[in-house]
Structures are given as structure tokens and as C-alpha cells.
Automatic annotation (TrEMBL):
PANTHER family, sorted: LARIAT DEBRANCHING ENZYME (PTHR12849:SF0), RNA LARIAT DEBRANCHING ENZYME (PTHR12849)
This protein's name: RNA lariat debranching enzyme Dbr1
Subcellular location: Nucleus
GO cellular component: nucleus
Swiss-Prot/TrEMBL keywords: Hydrolase, Iron, Manganese, Metal-binding, mRNA processing, Nucleus, Zinc
Listed Basic and acidic residues bias regions: 230-253, 267-279
Domain Lariat debranching enzyme C-terminal: residue ranges: 280-420
Swiss-Prot/TrEMBL cofactor(s): Zn(2+); Mn(2+); Fe(2+)
Amino acid sequence: MKVGIQGCCHGILDNLYSLASKHNVELLIIGGDFQAIRNLSDFHGISVPQKFKRLGDFHKYYSQEKIAPILTVFVGGNHEASNYLEELPFGGWIAPNIYYMGRSSVIRVGNLRIGGISGIYSEFDYRKGRYERLPYEYKMLKSVYHTREFDVLSLKSFRSPVDIFLSHDWPRGIEQHGDTIKLLKNKPFFRKEVERNDLGSPALEEILNSIKPRHWFAAHLHTRFAATVHHKDGSPPVHKDISELSHSKEEHKITKKARIETTPQTDLEHANENNDHSNDTSQAWSTSTTQFLALDKCLPRRSYFEVLEIDPTESFQDGDLYMKYDPEWLSIVRAMMPFQSSLVKQTPLPSMDELQNLIKKERQWIEDNVVQKNKLGILRNFTPTAPFHSSGITEKTIPATYVNPQTTSFLQLIGLQPECNEPLPQPSIKNKDEIDL
């Protein structure tokens, strides 16, 4: 499958889709900071300085004035309309053809198995529950996008091969597997973190060493960096002495670059004329090796978009872009649900052995009630919740809390009851002619 990979998005969709369409990508994946702002009231849910708050392009896709021309899958970062994404903790459509992977999940797109986790690491919030509720106070505006141990344990328990893993943050220590000298030349202020071995997320390091995906794509640190992780015996890499490092060719092993033809109609195109890697299939991928690639944010002459041809590990005999839930992941969600906490204090989590026993039990339920009944397909059931962008909604408008019907449907699919059965508020603007775009 020809896959386009985008670093931080920051609400710029129109030019991105124009660029991706010229490369004929079948699937577009975005590593966070998507900024799905539906209207100006969503500014209350995003953690960015006031001077950087922009409406962006997404509101046009939410109102369906525009439809995403390419199937898009993304995870959340640390600059998101968190109030919207929190409507879909298990994942779902935020607009037609744009799928959010939730706090953590594993799905199938065609024959590719894709895992992902949203947010960034904070030791202070890591072992807390999901207590944030609107209206967010300042601390909640930050903590709502912090990765939780609950989601990390869920992903670490996944045992099937994963073709692509998507995160915003980097796994800790990933710089040890690539050209560290070049990284520090581009980002010299990373040096102290590299020396302390705390560049990146220790939680993601655990996931990397546990599920060993064939590809891992990330963003967040606003630089292009590639690495190859050899998973041998599971022992941690020998930490490099920065003073003795020499330039490595490891970064260039991910795939050969092939120049593509572009016309400089936008800064996006001008910045990425060497980033189509789809024609190289010479690398023999192995589950004992992870090819890591982090990309920059979308600015002129920055490396933030690339194209790869990715072959699946397994064949599921579905349509090319048919999206399905993964039955093992659904089993994990059911097994972990009793440990989910909506309070600051996290319910004590099970050991891995205990969790695997629970998953085995729940797998039979999923097999009987979902797989055998042909219910694995991810429905195209996007439904707007908040009002569309209009002149009547300003930055002073306090966002409401919505029950997203996709979350209700997902929980019903796996035999669980939603915590809240309140009626779903409908968008107040139903006539598109009334929308101020």
C-alpha cells in the first residue's frame, strides 16, 4: 500500500491533501497536533499560546463543505482540540474519511495492522485516571493529553504482528539507533537529554520493545530523524558516548530516495520534492526490526511529508482500504474496562500475566459475538456533535460536553454500556447556507 506520512499537522489540511493527492497515496497517516477545531469555542480545549490560535482548515471538513479525498488516520498530540477528541476515547471519525485512533488502539486498514497512541509523556500524570472534564482548568488543559499507564499496558499486551505504529512523542532512546550526531547538529539543545537518556517517552520505549512493530512513525520534536532498531534478545541498546560518535549511515537505510516531479505551487510541495520513497521494495522487512521515522512540522523547506510503499505482514482477504477493528484489540478493551478510572486515582492495574488470562477469556466473547456475526467492520458513522463554525460562535463561547454516538455504538458492539446515556445534543446549525466559512 502506498502510504503518505505527515509530521505535525497544525490544522493545515487543504495544502496537505493537495500534495498527497499528487503522489497518489492510498492512505495518509498524521503523527499528531492535528488540531480538529470545529468552531472558535474549541479554542477552550486546546493548549497553545493565544497568538498561535488559528481556526485552520478542519472546520470545512467537519461541516462537510469539503470531504477528505484520501483516507486519513491520525493520533493526538499535545496541541489538540482535546474537548473534541475526548468524545472518542476508543477512536472514531472526526469528519468523513478522517479517522482518529483514540487514546490508544489497533485497527486494520486493508491488510495493514496499525497501532497507535495519542499524547505525550508526563511522569506526574502517567499513573492517574482520566479525570478531566469540561470546562478544563489550566492543569486539565495539559493533563488531558498526557499518556496514561492504562493505555500503555493495553498496547503492551498486544501479541499479533503490527505493521505500523503511530505516536506523537518519540520512544526514549530511539536516537541511539540512528545518526545521533546529525540529530544534535540539527537540534543542539537535545544534547543534555541525550546525555541523560531521557529524550523521548519511557512509556513508548516499553511499547517499542514489547510489540516490535515493523514501522514506527512519530512527530513532535520538529525534525526529521530515521533509525533502525534491531530487537535481538530484547536487551537495551548500549548508550552512545556523544564525544566519540561519528556520522552514521543508519539514517539512510530506511529506503533509497527517488526524486519525484513536483510543481512549486505551494510551500508544501517545495518543501518535499525528495520525499517519495514508494518505489524501493528492496528492504526485506522483519518483525525483529523496527524502521523508525520522525518528521518535521509543516513549514517551507522542512521535511514533514514522505511516501512509503508498505507491504502487509498478513493477508486478511478484505478490500484494499476496508477498515476493521482488530479482534485481539477488542478483547483487550473488554479485559481492561474494569480497570478504567474516571477519577484522579487510577484503579490498580493487573499484572501482565493476569491481563493475558483476562484477554484470553474475553477473546472468546469477541469471537462469538463480533467475529462470527461479521461485525468487525468500522462503520462510516460520522455524526456532528458541536455546532459548525459560524459568526454566532466566538472564542468566548464555552464548549458543551457531548456524548458522541460513535462511542456509544462502539461500546454496544463489544457488549459494554456507556457511562452516560444522556441524549445527544444536535448541531444548532442545520442549514449550510447559514455557516460563515
